[in-house]
C-alpha cells in the first residue's frame, strides 16, 4: 500500500499543518510509515504553498511524490499551479468557495470547508475541516479515529473542541460528497 | 596581603615556568600588566585553580601562557566567543581574557561588541599598543591618524577606535583605562573589574617600542614612555579644562587620551540571569509532572 | 555549578516514544539525549530548526543555549564550553560551515570534543538557501588549513538524524575530535517517524578525564589512564591541572614548539592516526543487494533514498544492481570500497553536487572498476527513474 497526498493552498492557511496531521496519523496513531515534505522559500511566506505526504506500509525510499493519488486544494492559485503535477485519475478535492474555477473536464470533489469553519465561529480551522473532508472522501489507509487523534495531538489545548468539531463536520461532509 | 609577598615570590607563585623566557621585547609594557594581574589576584586571594585565562592572537595574547592556571590560547579575534563558552558551561570559573587592540577591535570587534552587549560576566584586559606588533608593525584600528606603519607607509588616514568609549556605550559594567606606567591604578582596576558583576574592561596602554615606536620617531624607549605621559590626561582633569579652561589650554588638551575609571556599576551577569530562567523552567516542569522529575 | 543534564528529565521533555518530526528536530533530540550541556548557534536555513528546538528544550533540561553573533563565534563558544567539561554542539549549513573552518581546525588541533550538525545546502556563496544539497562533503575533510583527519556521519532518514547525532557525540568524546553530522536540507526538512530511545536504551561514551597526579600529567601525548590509546586524558578547566590549550604547534606538555619540526611531525601524526588506526573499526556501511551485484551505487545521505528505489526497480527488471551506503563517510572506508570494486564492474556515485565523494571512491577503487558520478544539482534529489537509467545504461 502506498498513497501520495498533496495538499495546497496559500501561506497562512495551515497547509503544512494539515499534511503534518495526516502523516502523524499514519505514523503515530496507525502503525504505518509516512514522510512529509514541503515547499520552502518565498512561497511559504504568502502565495501558493504545498505539502506532500506519502503513506506506506513499507519503508519509504524516495520521499517526494512521483505519482499523486489525491490532490487537495484550498486556493485557486495553488490549484492552477500544482494541477499539472497530477495524473489524469488523481482524486481532486477543493473548496468551491476558494477554488471557483475548477473545470478540468472531469469530476471534482467539492466541500465547503471554509463555510464549515465559519459556521463554527472561526475561519482558522478551515484546514482541519479539510483534513476531515479528505479523510471522508479518500481512503488514506488510516482509520478515521487515528486522524482524529492526530488532530487532537497537534492543536492547542485551548481550541481543542473547535478543532474536533471542524474535523468531524469536515469528515461528515466528505463522506456525503460526490464528485461533480 | 600585598605587603607580605615580594615581586620574586609572586612570580614564583604565579608564573608558568615551562613557558619562559617571555617573547616580550625590551621596553614593552605587557610584562608590567602581567605583574599587575598577579598582584590583583594575590590581593583578592583568588584560587588559580578556579581561574581561566583566555586570549586570541598577538603579543598580548601570549600572556595566559605565562600564568600558571588554565589557559586557552585561541584563534585571532575570537577569544571572547571562546570565553563565553567557557563561562557558559561553568559559570563559577573566574574568566579573564587578555587581548590586544587589533585582536579585540579589528578582527574581533564584533565579538567584543556582543560579549559586552550580552553582559557576559568576564574581565577583559586589553593591552592597547596602537599597532599590530607580533606581525611586524601593521596599522591597527586604534592607530592614531598620521601613524606610520608598514601598511600605512605614508601615514594613517583612518580614524581610531576608542576602545573604552565603545565599551562604555555598550553598557559594560566596568570600564577603565590606564597607561601601564601607572603602578597602582591598573592593579586596583583589575581587582575591581574581576569583582564587578557583568562585563568588565580594563584597557591598558602598553607601549610597543619595536613595532610602533621605531617608525614613529619614538624608538627610544624613554621617549616613547614619555609620549604616553605627555599625551594622556585624567578624565576629571580633561573635563575641567574643557569646561573652564582657556582656549589655549583646551587646544593643548583636546587630542589627549583620557584615562581613569569611566564606568563602574553592578549589573547582573548574563549567566546569573540564565540560571534563574533555568530554575523557573525546571520548577514549572516539575509542577506539570506532578512534583517528580 | 557545572551543567550536567539529568537524562530522565531530558527524556521527559522529549515526550512520546513515537513521533512524527523533522530531521532538524531529530538532530536536536539526539543532542539532548546525548547530554549536550551547551549549544551555541546562528540562524541559517535549512538548519535553523535545530537551534530553535535547542532554544526551547535545552534550558528546560538545565543546559545553556546562546544565539551567538555569527558562526565563527558559535564554533568558538562550543569549544570553550567543551573545555569547561560539558558536551557541546552547534548547527549550521554551507556558508556558516565555511565560516567555522578556522575554529574547526582549532578544535582538531586542541583535541576538543564537540559536534557540528551541518544541514547541507549548495553554493558557491549563498546559493539556494531553502534547497537541500550535499555541498560540504569534502570541505569537512579538507576545508581547514593544514593536515588533519575528519570524522563525519551521513543520515538518510529522520531516525538516523537522531541516532547519528548521539553517535557523533560518542565518537567525539572517544577521539577528542570535532565530529560533523553531514545531514542535508532534504533529510533536515523531511518529517518522518522516529522512535525515541529511553535512557536505558542508549549507550553513551564520556571523555576520559585526567586523574593522574598533577605533576605527572602529560596533556598532549598518549592516554595515561588508558594505556596504548593515542587520545590523551582530558584536563577539564577548573580541575586543577592548569593546562594550556593552544592552536600553535605544541609539545607533549602543551607549550608552543612552533619552530620544532619533530614536535610538529609527532603531534600531527598522532592527531591523524588516533583516528585512522581505527578506520576499519569505524567503517559503517549498509549493503543492499550486493551479493551478486555487478553494477552498484555508492551512496550516502538523502541520495541513498532514490538510489535504493532505483535498485529495487532495476532488480525487478533483472538487472544485477546493488548499493553500498556510507553511514560514516570520514574517515573514508577505503577497504570496503576496494573490496566492493573488485567484485563489480561499475560504481556509480549519485550526489547532489557535481561530484565530491566520487573522488575518494575513485581513489580507492581497483583500477579495473569504472567509477562515475551521477550528479544532480539545483537543490533537488535525483528521481528514482533518473538513477535507474544509469543502471540500465551500465548493465548493457
How does this structure look, described?
The complex is a heterotrimer of chains A (180), B (293) and C (396). Helix content of chain A is 37%, strand content 23%. With 180 residues, chain A is α/β, with parallel strands linked by helices. Chain A has a single domain, classed as Pyruvate-ferredoxin oxidoreductase, PFOR, domain III (Pyruvate-ferredoxin Oxidoreductase, domain 3). Chain A is globular and about 40 Å long. Chain B is globular, with a radius of gyration of 20 Å. The mean pLDDT of chain B is 94. Chain B has an 8-stranded mixed β-sheet with strand order 2-1-3-4-8-7-10-9, sandwiched between helices. Chain C is α/β, with parallel strands linked by helices. Chain C has 2 domains: 7-201, Thiamin diphosphate (ThDP)-binding fold, Pyr/PP domains (Rossmann fold), CATH 3.40.50.970; 286-395, 3-Layer(aba) Sandwich (Rossmann fold), CATH 3.40.50.920. The longest helix of chain C is centred in the middle third of the chain and has 18 residues, at 158-175. The chains are: A alpha/beta (180), B alpha/beta (293), C alpha/beta (396). Chains in contact: A-C, B-C. At the B-C interface, β2, α4, α6 and α13 of B face α1, β2, α4, α5 and β9 of C.
| CATH architecture descriptor text of chain B | 3-Layer(aba) Sandwich
- Classification by helices and strands of chain A: alpha/beta
Q: Tell me, what's the shape of chain A?
A: globular
* Total number of domains of chain A: 1
**Spatial arrangement of strands, main beta sheet of chain B:** 2-1-3-4-8-7-10-9
Supply the number of helical segments of chain A.
Answer: 6
Radius of gyration of chain B: 20 Å
Largest sheet of chain B: 8 strands, mixed
> Beta-strand percentage of chain A?
15-25%
Q: Please report the distance between the alpha carbons of the first and last residues of chain B.
A: 47 Å
List low-confidence stretches of chain A.
Answer: none
CATH homologous superfamily placement of chain A:
Pyruvate-ferredoxin oxidoreductase, PFOR, domain III
Q: Averaging pLDDT over every residue of chain A, what do you get?
A: 94
Q: What is the correct CATH architecture of chain A? A: 3-Layer(aba) Sandwich
> Which band does the percent of strand residues of chain B land in?
15-25%
